[in-house]
Write the structure tokens for this entry.
Amino acid sequence: MQQPSLSALTSIVEQIARTGDPRTVMSNIVQRLRDIMHVEVCSLYLCTPDFQHLILAATEGLSPQSVGKAKLGLDEGLVGHIAASLSTLNLGDAPADDRFVFIPETHEMPYHRFLGVPLLHLRKLIGVLVIQGREREPFPQEAEAFLITVASQLAGTLSQLQSKGGWYEKKSTRGGYRRFHGLKGAPGLGLGKLWLVRPHLSLDQVRAACTAEPEKDKTAITEAIAAVSEELESGSGHLGQHLPGDLHALFNVYQMMLQSPELSQQITARIDAGDNAPWALKQTITAMAEQFRQADDPYLKARAEDICNIGQRILNQLISRERPSMETPDEALILAGELISIADLADFPLHQIHGIICTQGSTLSHTAILANALGIPAVMGVEQFEPEQHKGAMLIADGHRAECVLNPPAALLTEYRRMIDEEQRFMQGLERLRDQPAVTTDGFTVSLLTNTGLLADATPGLQRGAEGVGLYRSEIPFMIHDSFPTEHEQFMLYHKVLEAYAPRPVSMRTLDIGGDKQLPYFDITETNPYLGWRGIRFSLDNAQLLIAQIRAMLRADVDNNNLRLLVPMVSRVDEMQSFRRYVEKSVDALTREGFAVRMPEIGMMIEVPSAMLLLPRLAPYIDFVSIGSNDLTQYLLAVDRNNPRVSNLFDHLHPAVLVALEQIQQQCEALSLPVSLCGEMASDPAAVLLLVAMGYRCLSLSAYNIPRVKLLIRSISRESLSDLLEQSRQCSSEAEVRALVAPVLEQVGWRQDKRPNLPDEETEGAQ
Ligand code: PEP
Ligand code: MG
């Protein structure tokens, strides 16, 4: 058997999977596989969402009428046997096998040789891939090896298609109740009507995509062209006689282009050939613009720009971005879309936004940071969710569990309403704690500081009783700029933050870009960004940026006197040595320039295991330590928490992380270095108990969580936690640690946010 090209197959499949509807993609897969492998039958069986049955999802060779209908129980027939045993089956005469079950609608009797392999993705059975032929001998070993490889390559794509639904006859998911998992964006619960936020898309950004419904696409194009024409008509009419003559002429040119039969004919022809409307539009406009550019006549040449302009207008109409109606200004909305930007949020009054659901992005995306700052529940990276299919549906954004619930049934809706009410009352009740210390019943005091990065969240931090800022993520203002901010721009910004918190301390961390924190105006493309040009490494290699930042911070501190500097992603002693030298030099230079600056305390983030192991050697160059438990967990466990394939392995209660944290605490005590912890761990009640037991006296967390964590600390005695800590030292998994801590939390009356489990839930997504 000739060796087919696997990479060609997978790249085609991935390309189709991004755009086509599940049925088309699946039938393309079996068709290509049958051709590549030179067999008579290739079929794909997929598990139903309840994992009770396998359904023929696509076939090339069996009766097409059986697709979506032929159904087997798990362990029923040869296909069921493969699913139940998770092993390959290669037979010379399938109908003669005891396990064979004949499904009349498939018409498969003439086929004897049978090879089936299970499809597994992330330990989960997706379905079974089968090839069949008329000969009466098993398939050769190479065919078996190839099919196993193909199955492993395709499982991820097929798993996505499987969860999209629409590939077999079942009750419509429209209007149906479903839950989707994503990644944590911002805590809280929100309930409202799904409001689709479409991305701003320029014609340049349109990518190749197939149409699933050509007639619908053609109508959409016709309507978009008509709408642009009307827009131009009313624009020119509205401006009337005020328009200069040459602009009148331009409007006429635009109208002529819009009305030209070539434009609509060419777009329609491309849609008929399989392209979707935006892609057909882009290709047509590009080709027409190119024709104009080729012209010798300078007047015609200049029309290239006009046709591009027209194309962009048609595209805007095609993906028209809706706004909430003025008649429903108080309606609660959950904004849903790929990624929702600051500009998108600005289209809505804040009180109307009850939640944010993004199908892309991660915990540290812009949107998540912004949602945290504004106190809006957010769930990120809900890959399986297709908001455009459910416009106007009722949606719950559950930021605590990182999930969204579509069309919740009445009982669940009532329960969520109760929880939202309870949460509001709970938070209001906590206001009385604002000026109280976070002290255990036996007198152990913990400072609670806040994490911030936007000016917008300075107020919530203060309102919720933050005793200062434990982590100011300076990259956030860099991320929402469109070029590196100047020293003066930075000075203005830092000054406002320091002033808002003075005299409380503010630890300003220098730029921490790289990994998943990218600047829109400075592309860093790396094979392994988490092990690359991140944090202090980037800053030291771009000393001009670092010096400007240090200078801006030092100047902002002049009349506030509350600045502390914090260095991210330290992994080597010489990094802290160099950083300290830059600060000393900046203090000297600014003093000479007449600024009354002072040498601030310098802190180091422990995020990389080497910084933890070298702590005694780093101590001479630092005044305090701040543990970034997010990155420390990531690097200790070698788990990228934004990677859905492994994010279930990311847990800061992993025993190795706890060992590291105890070691850091003890070393800092021995070295007389103040230590705080500023990752998400500081908001996890189970972790807080263990951290207090270890002796941590300072935590930095989002403003939203400060009152809860304060309440928890005030309701426990540290003494009573020492047994818990001792027992946790014996645990060998994070699950054991959580099971150990849960009863203690219950004992102090800590509310676990319980959600009722209703029958027939369909749960999808990462995790
Ligand atoms: C951390 O790594 O825990 C941390 C606080 O830094 P960031 O989340 O900004 O990477
Ligand atoms: Mg970090």
Summary: The longest strand covers residues 124-133. Residues 471, 473, 512, 607, 628-631, 678-679 surround phosphoenolpyruvate (ligand 1) (CB under 6 Å).
